[in-house]
Amino acid sequence: MKLNQRPSRIECFDNSNIGGSFPVASRVVFIDGEPDTSQYRRYHIKTVQGADDYASMKEILSRRLANPSDPLPDILMVDGGRGQLAIAEKLLDEILIDNSLCVIGIAKKQAHEKKDKIYLPKRSNPVNISDDALLLLQHIRDEAHRFAIEFHRKKRQKKQTSSILDDIPGIGPKRKALLIKHFGRIQNIKSASMSDFEAINGITKTQAEKIYYHFN
Length: 216
Hints:
Blueprint: E1 9-18, E2 21-31, E3 34-35, E4 41-44, H1 53-65, E5 75-79, H2 82-95, E6 102-107, E7 117-119, H3 131-165, H4 173-183, H5 186-190, H6 194-198, H7 205-215
Parallel strand pairs: 1-5, 5-6
Antiparallel strand pairs: 1-2, 2-3, 2-4, 6-7
């Protein structure tokens, strides 16, 4: 990739949604080949309606580059092919005065291909890199994907749990938040005993009865 020095900080971005529902994204940071989880970030997609990976990528990269407290990476990687890479490249040119940042796209191999592909700006064909370098970039991409999927699953589950709790009379947003925080999953709420609900600080005995008998 013709870098002037060995890259230390690599950031990778990935989107996650199901049919445009609950869209989120992630950033993972690797320093000298190791994950730095303290610098991982989750993003709620705020400006995009429906399943538009390009627009979602534009939003999260804009928000990332607008944060002056984060040092710029040696390599900024987006999960996707030439389309996502073009979005990243255009944003970097617009935002950074001195755009010497290395930006790459990583695309999964097709059925007839032997390995994943690495794309660089202004090049239509993928570039060849060493197997060790490709394995590292794949590992970083997979970690970004895992982190995004995990966040998407939690967001979807929280919304579904909240929707079910909406049907309980007399249980408003504050009590719903207490239940979600305490039990986590709707299955745990359904299987809880009366005393489990009564033990929650902020839930009265009358409210505990309403919740318990709603599911039993």
